[in-house]
Amino acid sequence: MGDRSSVRDEEFRAFVTGRWPRLMRTAFLLTGERHAAEDLVQSTLEKTFVAWRRVGSADDPEAYVRRVMINAHARRHRRKLREFLAPRDDSGLAHEIADTGDRISQADDRNALLKALVQLPPRQRQAVVLRYWEDLTESQTAEAMGCSVGAVKSNAAKGIAKLRAVPGLAGTLTSEGRK
C-alpha cells in the first residue's frame, strides 16, 4: 500500500513540476495579482492531490486541474463581491517564449493589457484568458468553465469588445487575432 502511495506522490510531484509555470500564468491572469495567483494554485493543488488517483488516471489531468482552479477562483470572487486588484507588474511570473502567431503576446504594453483584463467581469475574463491566452478550443473552454460553447462565444466576444474599447489596446486586438 505504501509503495502505491509513493508512486502516486511521485506522479503528482512530476505533474506539478511540469505544469507550475502554466498554472501560475493562468492563475495570475484570473486573479490579477501574483500573491493571489500563488494562493489559487496552492489551493487548487491541495484539492487535486486529495483526488490524484482519479485525476492522474483521467484522459487530460491538466484540464481537470484547470477546472478546479476556475471553480475555486469563481468561489473566491463571489465571496469578495467583485473586488479586483490591478496587477502592479508581472515580473514574478515565469515567462514563456513569445509565439509569433499569438496576438496577445505581441501587445506593446503588456501591463496595460493586464490592467484592462482585470477590469472584465469574471466570466468574460475567464473566457478571454482560456480562449485566447491559453489557446483552448471553444469546447475545451466551455468544459473548463462549466458552461455551453455558446456562453463561451458570448463571454469571449463581449470581453474582447471591452478590451478593444480601451485606448491603446484597440490596435493589438484585431479580428485576425480571434480564433
From TrEMBL:
Domain of life the protein comes from: Bacteria
Organism: Streptomyces adustus
InterPro entries from the UniProt entry: RNA_pol_sigma-70-like, RNA_pol_sigma-70_dom, RNA_pol_sigma-E_actinobac, RNA_pol_sigma70_r2, RNA_pol_sigma70_r4_t2, RNA_pol_sigma_r2, RNA_pol_sigma_r3/r4-like, WH-like_DNA-bd_sf
Any one GO biological process: DNA-templated transcription initiation
Family to which this protein belongs: Belongs to the sigma-70 factor family. ECF subfamily.
Keywords: DNA-binding, Sigma factor, Transcription, Transcription regulation
Domain RNA polymerase sigma-70 region intervals: 21-80
Pfam families according to UniProt: Sigma70_r2, Sigma70_r4_2
Identification of the protein by name: SigE family RNA polymerase sigma factor
